[in-house]
Amino acid sequence: MAGPALLEVTALVKRFGALAATDGATLSVNSGEIHALIGPNGAGKTSLLAQIAGTLLPDAGSIRFQGHEIARLPAHRRVRLGLARSFQITRLFRGLSALQNVALAVQAAQGSSLSFWRPVARESALFDQARAVLAQVGLSGREASLSDDLSHGEQRALEVALALATGPQLLLLDEPLAGMGAQESAAMVALIERLKGRATVLLVEHDMQAVFQLADRISVLVGGRVIACGTPAEIRADPAVISAYLGDEALP
After folding, report:
1. Which residues of 136-152 are buried (b: 16+ CB within 10 A; e: fewer)?
2. Is the pLDDT of residue 213 over 80?
3. If exposure means fewest CB atoms within 10 Å of the residue's CB, which of 13, 168, 178, 234 is most exposed?
């Protein structure tokens, strides 16, 4: 069962000249749920996620996380509070193994400088944590593989591992299925399903079949505003949502 609101976004506005990326966006994410954020192309989904993560500061509005106002906090402070994000385009430490990638993320979460790799390499407990995270995302046996040598789906799973290594209360996933084939998509859906009960998830995803399979609740963003929020069944039957998707994406 999902708990009370972990994240509350209220009247969030971000403009780029005359373009409103978010135009009074309001939504809440309950503790323990997988909450999907969907909408037509250009609706402002990634901009909203970036404002929640702290990589883009809003012009107006409120972002409350665990009851604390964070709208003006820098991204690294939000990570320390329990927010972690994956990106549309995979961002990994190139030239390092999967295990080293996650070990660096664990180290950063513990407040150590990333420049001190040599002493970190002697800390077996840190690497034990990294191996456990890799196992959680299905990458056991790939610890020694360089990130560049992993398949696209494995790289996306590794990026989720980097986020999980920070011990997040809320995991922001930005199109984790992007560019995947059917088999890789199924593996990522299974991974996200395994996160239930371990972390609250706010998911931005274009694959509607995956969204309706995974989400406890769905918010629909159109023109920078949330026009509907509800269970998958409620969203599937909402006339405003159906209208917003005509000619763009059909709901399953």
Report:
1. bbbbeebbebbbeebee
2. yes
3. 234
Q: Are residues 190 and 245 in the same domain?
A: yes
For residues 61 and 173, membership in a common domain is answered with: yes
In this structure, which amino acid lies at residue 196? K
Both 75 and 184 in a single domain?
yes
DSSP 216-227: SEEEEEETTEEE
Domain hosting residue 9, numbered range = 1-82+168-252
More confident residue, 235 or 118: 235
Residue 75 has pLDDT above 60, yes or no: yes
pTM above 0.85, yes or no: yes
pLDDT at 76: 87
- Quick one: 205 and 105 in the same domain? no
AA identity, residue 3: G
Do the strands 170-174 and 83-85 form a parallel or antiparallel pair, or are they unpaired?
A: parallel
Mean pLDDT, residues 11-18 taken together:
95
End position of a domain, from candidates 145, 167, 189: 167
User: Per-residue pLDDT for 129 more than 50?
Assistant: yes
Helix axes 98-109, 124-136, angle to 10 degrees: 110
Q: Are residues 74 and 181 in the same domain?
A: yes
